[in-house]
Q: What sequence folds into this?
C-alpha cells in the first residue's frame, strides 16, 4: 500500500493533527493564558526551590530586629558591580518608644551568589548553598529584602516557604477532589437513575452550606496537639470535601453528553466491551475538560487555604503559608507602622489571576472540535 | 420487483418500545411515550425495505431497537444468522455481542457518528479489532480495501475525521458498517444531514454496494423521492405503528391507507399546474404519550367512520406483500402519484 511521502503541506498537517495538537494550536492563540502558564510555572519553581531561594532560616527568631523595614541591596561599590548591604543599628525613639533602625554605612557586608548559608535538606541530601548569601555575618542578622515580622524573622525567606505550602496544598487538595469528583461524577453520569439523583442532591446540599462557617467548624475541630503535617493534610481534606462537587458535575455532564453521541452507539454495535467504550472513547474526550476544570479549581483551593489560615483556623504557626503570614497584617496598627507585612498578598493575587487565565485558556482550547 | 422466493432475513414481530415519563423527586412513572407501538415488518435477503414517516413517528427508535442499541419493551426481532434464526429482543448485552457483526448501522449525523479523536484507520478497523482480528497488517489491508470501496483514497487512513466533509464522513461511516461483512445494514436517514448534491452520490454508493456485496438494507427515511429511488418495498409509519407496507410501485401508484395518500400528496412536484391538487392533512400529529382511541389516524382522516374511532384496525394482507392497517382498505380507492 502506497502512503504518500511528499512534504506535508499545511492542509495535510491539519488532517493528521491529533486532538492534543489541535488543543495546543488553539491554546497558542490565547496570549493571556500563555502568560499565566509561564507565571504559574515560575511560582511552582519557587515552591520547588524554596530552600535555595531563601537566604535566612525562616524560623530564626531575633527580637532585637523585629518589624524591620525592607532593607535594600547596594549593587555598586565605587562604580564596580559588587553587591553588598550596609549594617543596621536599632535604637529606641526616646519620644515615641518606637524602634528605629539606622543604616550604618561604616559596615558593609558583601553578598555572594550561590554562597553558603543555613543548612537545608532535599530528598534526604543536605545542602547549604543559597541564591544569595552574606559574607562576614549570618544572613539572618544583616539581609532583610522585605523586612521582618514582629518576631524578627525575615519576610522574604518566609515568603518562599509560604509559597511552597500554599501552592502544594492547592495541588494536593485538587488531586483529592479530582479523585472523588471523577469517581462520584462518573458513577452519577454513567449509571444515571436514582443513584444519579441521590448524588446530585448530596452535591446540592454540600454546596448550599456556607463555606466559611463550615470550614470554621471543621477547622476548630482539629485537635490542637496535632503536628504541622497532620494539620496540613487535615486542611487539604477539608478543602476537597467541598471542592469535589464542582469536578463531579463536570464529569457527570461529560458522561451524559457523551452517552448520547452516535460514535458511542457505533462502538457498542461494533461489539466493544464496556471497559473499551469508557477508556477508548469516553475518557479521551473528557480528559481535556478535566484538565481545564482542575486548573480552575486550584486557585479556589489556594484562596480557601489562605482565608482559613488568615482567620487562624487553618494552618497554624510554626507552619508558614500565605495565610499564616497575612495573619500578622490583621490589625490597622501593623498596617500603619509596618506596611511591608501586607506584601504576601501580591503573590496570592498574581498566582490566582494567572491560574484563572491559564484555566480559561485551557477551557477554550479543550474542545477543538466544537 | 420483489422476489417472494427469497428467504426472510429479518422478521420483526409486534415490536414495542415505551419510554417511561418520570415526574418528581422520586421519579414516579406517570405514563409512557409509545415511541414504537406494535411494529411488524420483515426484510428479505438482498432487498431494500424503506421505513418512512413524519419526524417523531418512531422510525429511528424502531431502527435502534432492531440493532439493539435500545432494549425493546416487548416483541420479537428474528434474525437469520449463518446457524439459524435467533430472537434478539430478549438477549442481554453480553449475549448480543456475537450477533452484532451480522447487523450494522449507518447513522444520520456524520459529525457525531465518528470519534473525532481517532484516525480513520482506528475508526474503520475497530469492529475488526474487537471481533478478534488483532493483526495490524490484516486490518490495514482491509481498511484500505473498504476505503476504496466507498470511494475514498486508502492513504487517508492516517487522517482524523475533522479533515473530511459531511459526505466523506458518511462514506467513512459506511466503510465502518461494512467492516465485518454484515448481512443486514440499517441506514438511519443516512442522507438527510447532507447537501442535496451529495445525497445522490451517497445513495448511488449504497445501491452500488448493495449490488456488489448482496447487502440487505433497512433504509429509514422521511423523503419519499429518495425512497422511490432506492427501495423494493416501503413501510409507512404513523405514531409508532406501521400503517401500510407494499412494494414500491404499488405503494406509489395505488396506496391503500389514507395516511399514505396524504404523504404522497405532500411530495413536492416540479410542475406548477399541479398546484391545486395539494391535499393537506388537518390537525396535529397524535401525541405518542396519549394516542387517540381506535385507529391512531382517525382524527385527521377524511374517510374515518365511527368504527375507526373505537376499534384498532389489524394489519391485513390485501395483495401479495401488501399489508394495510385500515378498516376501509378494501373499499377505498385512493389517489397515488403518476409514474414519472
A:
Amino acid at each position: 500500500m502506497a502512503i504518500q511521502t511528499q512534504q506535508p503541506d499545511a492542509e495535510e498537517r491539519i488532517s493528521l493533527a491529533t486532538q492534543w495538537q489541535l488543543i495546543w494550536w488553539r491554546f497558542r492563540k490565547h496570549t493571556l493564558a500563555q502568560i499565566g502558564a509561564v507565571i504559574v510555572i515560575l511560582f511552582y519553581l519557587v515552591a520547588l526551590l524554596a530552600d535555595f531561594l531563601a537566604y535566612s532560616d525562616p524560623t530564626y527568631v531575633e527580637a532585637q530586629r523585629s518589624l524591620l523595614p525592607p532593607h535594600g541591596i547596594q549593587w555598586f561599590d565605587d562604580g564596580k558591580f559588587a553587591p553588598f548591604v550596609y549594617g543596621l543599628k536599632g535604637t529606641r525613639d526616646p519620644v515615641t518608644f518606637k524602634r528605629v533602625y539606622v543604616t550604618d554605612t561604616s559596615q558593609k557586608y558583601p553578598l555572594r551568589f550561590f554562597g553558603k548559608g543555613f543548612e537545608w535538606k532535599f530528598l534526604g541530601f543536605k545542602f547549604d548553598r543559597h541564591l544569595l548569601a552574606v559574607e562576614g555575618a549570618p544572613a539572618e542578622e544583616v539581609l532583610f529584602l522585605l523586612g521582618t515580622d514582629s518576631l524578627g524573622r525575615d519576610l522574604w525567606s518566609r515568603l518562599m516557604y509560604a509559597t511552597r505550602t500554599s501552592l502544594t496544598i492547592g495541588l494536593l487538595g485538587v488531586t483529592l477532589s479530582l479523585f472523588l469528583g471523577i469517581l462520584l461524577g462518573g458513577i452519577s453520569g454513567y449509571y444515571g437513575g436514582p443513584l444519579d439523583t441521590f448524588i446530585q442532591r448530596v452535591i446540592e446540599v454540600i454546596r448550599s452550606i456556607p463555606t466559611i462557617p463550615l470550614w470554621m467548624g471543621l477547622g476548630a475541630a482539629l485537635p490542637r496537639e496535632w503536628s504541622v503535617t497532620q494539620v496540613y493534610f487535615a486542611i487539604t481534606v477539608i478543602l476537597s470535601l467541598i471542592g469535589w462537587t464542582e469536578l463531579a458535575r463536570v464529569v457527570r455532564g461529560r458522561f451524559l453528553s457523551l452517552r448520547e453521541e452516535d460514535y458511542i452507539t457505533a462502538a457498542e454495535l461494533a461489539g466493544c466491551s464496556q471497559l473499551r467504550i469508557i477508556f477508548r472513547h469516553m475518557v479521551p474526550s473528557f480528559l481535556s475538560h478535566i484538565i481545564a476544570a482542575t486548573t480552575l479549581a486550584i486557585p479556589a483551593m489556594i484562596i480557601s487555604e489562605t482565608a482559613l489560615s488568615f482567620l487562624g483556623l487553618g494552618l497554624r504557626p510554626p507552619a508558614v503559608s500565605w495565610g499564616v503570614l497575612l495573619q500578622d497584617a490583621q490589625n490597622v496598627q501593623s498596617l500603619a507602622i509596618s506596611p511591608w507585612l501586607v506584601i504576601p498578598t501580591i503573590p496570592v493575587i498574581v498566582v490566582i489571576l494567572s491560574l484563572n487565565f491559564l484555566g480559561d485558556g485551557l477551557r477554550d482550547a479543550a474542545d477543538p472540535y466544537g | 420487483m420483489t422476489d417472494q422466493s427469497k428467504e426472510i432475513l429479518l422478521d420483526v414481530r409486534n415490536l414495542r418500545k415505551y419510554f417511561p415519563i418520570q415526574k418528581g423527586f422520586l421519579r414516579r412513572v406517570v405514563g409512557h411515550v409509545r415511541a414504537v407501538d406494535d411494529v411488524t415488518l420483515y426484510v428479505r435477503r438482498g432487498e431494500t425495505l424503506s421505513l418512512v414517516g413524519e419526524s417523531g413517528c418512531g422510525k429511528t427508535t424502531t431502527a435502534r431497537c432492531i440493532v439493539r442499541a435500545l432494549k425493546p419493551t416487548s416483541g420479537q426481532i428474528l434474525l437469520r444468522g449463518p446457524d439459524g434464526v435467533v430472537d434478539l429482543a430478549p438477549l442481554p448485552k453480553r449475549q448480543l455481542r456475537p450477533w452484532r457483526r451480522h447487523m450494522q448501522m449507518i447513522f444520520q449525523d456524520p459529525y457525531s457518528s465518528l470519534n473525532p479523536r481517532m484516525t480513520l484507520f482506528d475508526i474503520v478497523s475497530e469492529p475488526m479489532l474487537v471481533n478478534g482480528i488483532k493483526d495490524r497488517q490484516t486490518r490495514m489491508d482491509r481498511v484500505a480495501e473498504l476505503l476504496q470501496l466507498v470511494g475514498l483514497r486508502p492513504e487517508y487512513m492516517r487522517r482524523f475525521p475533522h479533515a473530511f466533509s459531511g459526505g466523506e464522513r458518511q462514506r467513512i461511516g459506511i466503510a465502518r458498517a461494512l467492516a465485518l461483512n454484515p448481512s443486514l445494514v440499517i441506514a438511519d436517514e443516512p442522507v438527510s444531514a447532507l447537501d442535496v448534491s451529495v445525497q445522490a452520490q451517497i445513495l448511488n454508493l449504497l445501491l452500488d454496494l448493495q449490488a456488489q456485496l448482496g447487502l440487505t438494507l433497512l433504509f429509514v427515511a422521511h423523503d419519499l423521492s429518495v425512497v422511490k429511488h432506492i427501495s423494493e418495498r416501503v413501510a409507512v409509519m404513523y405514531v409508532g405503528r406501521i400503517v401500510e407496507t407494499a412494494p414500491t410501485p404499488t405503494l406509489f401508484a395505488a396506496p391503500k391507507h389514507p395516511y399514505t395518500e396524504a404523504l404522497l400528496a405532500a411530495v413536492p412536484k416540479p410542475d406548477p399546474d399541479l398546484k391545486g391538487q395539494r391535499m393537506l392533512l388537518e390537525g396535529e400529529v397524535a401525541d405518542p404519550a396519549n394516542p387517540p382511541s381506535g385507529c391512531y389516524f382517525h382524527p385527521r382522516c377524511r374517510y374515518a367512520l365511527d368504527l375507526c374511532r373505537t376499534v384498532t384496525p389489524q394489519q391485513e394482507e390485501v395483495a401479495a406483500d401488501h399489508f394495510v392497517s385500515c378498516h376501509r382498505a378494501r373499499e377505498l380507492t385512493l389517489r397515488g402519484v403518476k409514474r414519472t
